[in-house]
From TrEMBL:
Membrane-topology annotation of the record: Multi-pass membrane protein
Name recorded for this polypeptide: GtrA family protein
One Pfam family matching this protein: GtrA_DPMS_TM
Transmembrane segments: 7-31, 37-57, 77-98
UniProt domain GtrA/DPMS transmembrane: residue ranges: 18-131
Keywords: Membrane, Transmembrane, Transmembrane helix
Organism of provenance: Flavobacterium chungangensis
Domain of life from the UniProt record: Bacteria
Localization annotation: Membrane
Keyword Transmembrane helix annotated: yes
Length: 143
C-alpha cells in the first residue's frame, strides 16, 4: 500500500517532468521554426533547458532537498546529468526499435518509449539516487 506522501511525491515529480518536457518540446520548435536552427542544435539547447527546469523543480519543490545544498548540488547535478544521458539513449533506442521492428510511427513509438523510460528509469533514479535523503534527516524533519 502506498503512503500518501509517496503518491504526492510521485505526482509532483510528474508535474516537474511535464513542465521540463513541454519546455523542451516548445523551445525545440521555436528554435527550429522561428530561429531556423538545425533541429539537432535545437534539441541540444531545448533538452538542456528542459533538464534544468526539471532538475530545479525536483530539487526545490518535489524532493525539497535543500539541506547542505552547496555541497550536495554538484553531486546531484552530476547524477542528474547521467540520468538524462541514459534517458535520451533509452528513448532514442526504444523509438528506433519500435519503428524498425514493428513499423510503429516514430511519434507514437516515442510516446510509448517515453512512458516506460519516464516511469521505469527516470523517476526511480531521480527519487532514489539523485535526490536520495538519508533517513536521519527525514526523521529530524518530521519531528
Amino acid at each position: 500500500m502506498f503512503k500518501k506522501k509517496a503518491i504526492v511525491t510521485f505526482l509532483q515529480a510528474q508535474v516537474a517532468a511535464f513542465l521540463g518536457g513541454i519546455t523542451d518540446y516548445g523551445l525545440m520548435i521555436l528554435l527550429t521554426e522561428v530561429f531556423k536552427l538545425h533541429f539537432t542544435f535545437s534539441i541540444l539547447i531545448s533538452g538542456t533547458v528542459g533538464a534544468i527546469i526539471n532538475f530545479s523543480i525536483n530539487r526545490f519543490w518535489v524532493f525539497k532537498n535543500q539541506c547542505g545544498y552547496s555541497s550536495r548540488i554538484n553531486s546531484q547535478l552530476f547524477k542528474f546529468a547521467l540520468v538524462v544521458l541514459g534517458s535520451i539513449s533509452l528513448k532514442s533506442s526504444g523509438t528506433f526499435i519500435l519503428q524498425k521492428a514493428f513499423q510503429i510511427d516514430y511519434r507514437i513509438g516515442r510516446l510509448i518509449t517515453d512512458s516506460f523510460v519516464s516511469y521505469g528509469f527516470n523517476y526511480p533514479l531521480i527519487k532514489y539516487w539523485v535526490f536520495k535523503t538519508n533517513q536521519k534527516q527525514d526523521i529530524i524533519k518530521s519531528n
